[in-house]
Amino acid sequence: MSSPWTAALIAVFAWWFFTGAILLIVRRADGGDAVAHGRNVFLSVPLLALGAAGLILSSVSLTVINVYIAFLSTLLIWGWIELAFLAGVITGPERHPCPAHLTGLARFNRAWHTVSHHELLLLLGLFGILTVTSHAENTVAFWSYLILFVARISAKLNLFFGVPRINTEFVPQPLQHLKSYFRQGPITMAFPIGVTFLSITAACFAERLIAAPTVEAATGFALLTALAILATLEHWLMVVPLPDAKLWRWMLPDITPTSKDKTHEL
After folding, report:
1. How many structural domains are present in the chain?
2. Is residue 256 assigned to a domain?
3. What is the pLDDT of residues 48-65, one digit of tens each?
4. In angstroms, rounded to a whole number, what is the distance separating the alpha carbons of residues 93 and 115?
5. Which of 36, 62, 70, 229 could connect to 29 by a Cys-Cys bridge, CB 3.0–4.6 Å?
6. Is residue 37 a contact partner of residue 82, using CB atoms and an 8 Å limit?
């Protein structure tokens, strides 16, 4: 567990597992009754509480086990917020498709109102974790959440401004209107900015990993490096034609697809 390679593999598995679990819950709710999505969000609140408790308890000291607890607790908190978004419970006040005639600032403003509540909740989560870890020995949770936060904002901006590959296969029923705000086409400046920033972040954590003075620090930086690399990879998958959806499609129940295009989750 103290090997950096083991930590990196755990980060990759956790990314795959948490994404798949959320997609599975949402897909099953799509085929359920009218309150299935809301019920799932309510029943998963204990997982949010578990993540919050793990975050607080693990922040007090920097040990290998606390590094893992902080990382997994962050994924629980992030995962619940994403589930609430995909379930259509916490999104934004605008829930209708984008009119075809809207362009520029008017289109951006309408797009913001489709996800504003979710973005504000993500920001609230960031400040909450910062408050807990600001004077703590173990700050892995904060950096993990910050990577996820920046990557998610960048991905949404790229989907809005335009990328060559957009997979809407996993967009759940409550968020079908969001597809009208995606733009499939050439990349814009949002892509190189996002990819460059995430690549530099991964390189910085990798440098810290190589220079880590303790096993505990090395474990934490290995998790963060792997997470930053995964975030960078997710951006490239909006450009490079690879069948990444197959990573989770095999484990999901069959639901009549609404599209064969592309999206990226956690």
Report:
1. 1
2. no
3. 999 999 999 999 999 999
4. 8
5. 36
6. no
Is 264 inside a domain boundary? no
Tell whether 97 is covered by a domain. yes
- How far, in Å, CA of 56 to CA of 70, rounded? 8
- Residue 173 within any structural domain of the chain: yes
Q: Are 169 and 86 in contact (CB under 8 A)?
A: no
What's the pLDDT tens digit per position in 117-150? 999 999 999 999 999 999 999 999 999 999 999 9
Query: Tokens 């990573």 identify what position?
Result: 247
Residue of 222, 225, 220 lying closest to 202 (CA atoms): 225
Is-contact 167 155, C-beta < 8 A? no
Q: What pTM was computed for the model?
A: 0.92
CA distance 149 to 146: 5
CA distance 245 to 230: 15
Q: Which pLDDT score, from 0 to 100, does residue 104 have? A: 93
The β-bridge partners of 163 are 184
- The domain containing residue 226 runs over which residues? 4-249
